[in-house]
Amino acid sequence: MNPELPPLCVSCSIFRREIEELRASGRLDLPVHFLDSMLHMVPAKLESTLQESLDAIRAADPDRKVVIAYGDCCGHMETYESRPGTARTEGINCCEIILGREAYRRLRKEGVFFLMPEWTLAWKDVFVEQLGLLGPNAKTFMREMHTRLVYLDTGLVPVPHGTLREASEFLGLPYEIMNVPLDFLLASLKQAASFARAHG
Amino acid sequence: MERNYSQELLMAIERADRSGAALIIDAWAGQHAFSRVVPDLLSPVLETFGNLWASGHGGVSLATGYVASKVAEDVLSRLLQEAPAGGGNTPVKGPVVLGNVEDDFHPLGRKMVAAFLRTEGWDVRDLGVDVSAKQFVDAAEEVGSRIIGASAMMHTTAKNVARIREEIDGRGYTGRIMLAVGGAVFKLRPELVKAFGADGTSDSAVSASALFDELWQRSISLYPGTGGALEQP
Fold it and tell me: Could you say which of 3.40.50.280, 3.30.360.10, 1.10.10.200, 3.40.50.10490 is the CATH number of the domain covering B93-222?
């Protein structure tokens, strides 16, 4: 093992643009391997793919430190993050990781449904194809569970206003745009990297 | 040829067709007393649906599970409207308290469980999302519930079930208040039910009523009291 090597980050692609921006700007020095965010729709597949990815890293270098840039997104996440030299970004899900705990809890208590940039573009696939919410069920369901949509704008891609209007109309909820800095994500990644380095 | 209302209703639910389900129930009610719709039509269909759900049948999705619970709610709502004042549709079991554990903001499963429990005659006190251990036990004390139903989607939040266990035991309600849990993580990792101190779980929201029947009886067998609601330790 080369002790100089930084931890390798395995990340959900939901953070792809944000992490690439942090790396390009020199604020983050972790090499990153991204896994498709749509794996969330089949948690068992997410789990097996993540495990395969972590196993492959260990097979290549048993002492390599690993950062898992995920929320608690599958049933055995805590098993993976408890391996020596491994740490996960703090947060229940991607929205909490990028918003920070306080803002996330406050908005969830208000009934907010979050739209991250990558999933906003795939909203129809998620709601209609994957969850089966068609016709009046979509509006009834969303209005019963939520009060509004909030698009988390990390400033790296143009806000997809047309897509948001379409999703808002289909789901029967108003939407708003919230500017989100990358500070919480960066802090969470750095904290996890530091933990992974210290707990080999 | 006689219509198979049960099969039609099941298929409507599997298509997530709430209005279609309502039409089938209306047609059934044209030939039967509507007061019999739960035991004679809805419950058997929901039981079949629950079995499909528990077995991971491909036709059961978030949308179909949601629609099944809305069909149950629609039936209950109509029963309440049609019942004479103080009539026969008041809850006959419970009361029980339900909620999502602290830090859990995923209400769907809990709402579905509440709908199916009410269909089976349970008096459900729904505390909502992000409910602390103290709030759960306070509510159970206040209403006299022998069961707390706690929902958690992820392992991180499911750990808060252990806090409810501590709160129940700390106040001397061990065996008096039973702790039922549900949610994705318990379905994926059933060993967590015992690990976090819960008394039971069910394979699906539809089968929660059977679990609650069992837990209620277990509480009564340990602490009979007057045979009804929770009493102080």
Answer: 3.40.50.280
CA of A132 to nearest chain B CA: how many angstroms apart?
5
pLDDT averaged over every residue in chain A: 93
Domain ranges of chain A: 8-92+182-198, 96-179
Give, as one character, the DSSP assignment of residue B172: T
- Contact status of A4 with chain B (Cβ, < 8 Å): no
Q: Does A179 contact chain B (CB < 8 Å)?
A: no
Residue A119 exposure: Cα atoms within 13 Å on the Cβ side: 23
Chunked into runs of 10 residues, chain B (233 residues) has average pLDDT values of: 91 92 95 90 90 72 87 88 63 92 93 90 95 98 96 95 98 96 91 97 90 96 80 74
Q: How far apart are CA B231 and CA B233, in angstroms?
A: 6
Fold designation for A8-92+182-198 = Rossmann fold (3.40.50)
Give ∠ CA B151-B152-B155 in degrees, rounded to 5: 155
| CATH superfamily assigned to domain B5-82 | Methionine synthase domain (1.10.1240.10)
Cα–Cα nearest to A153, from A17, A25, A13, A31: A17
Q: Flag if A72 and B156 touch (Cβ within 8 Å).
A: yes
Residue A105: CA count within 13 A, CB half-sphere: 9
**How high is the pLDDT of residue B198?**
98
Instruction: Say if strands B147-151 and B93-100 run parallel, antiparallel, or are unpaired.
Output: parallel
Q: Which residues 6+ apart lie within 8 Å of B141 measured at CB? A: B171, B230, B232
Q: What is the pLDDT of residue B100?
A: 97
Record the tokens describing residue B223, joined without a space: 């602490």
The predicted model gives A154-180 an average pLDDT of: 97
* Domain locations along chain B: 5-82, 93-222
Contact assignment for A72 to B154 by CB distance below 8 Å: yes
Q: Where does A94-148 have alpha helices with state H?
A: 94-99, 101-109, 117-121, 123-124, 135-145
**Whole-model pTM over 0.90:** no
A77 and chain B in contact, CB less than 8 A: yes
Q: Where are the alpha helices (DSSP H) in A7-134?
A: 16-24, 43-60, 77-81, 94-99, 101-109, 117-121, 123-124
- For residue B207, what are its two tokens? 């089968």
pLDDT value for B61: 78
Q: Decide if B103 and A141 are in contact by the 8 Å CB cutoff.
A: no
**Which of A95, A133, A170, A171 to substitute to test the interface with B, most B CBs within 10 Å?**
A133
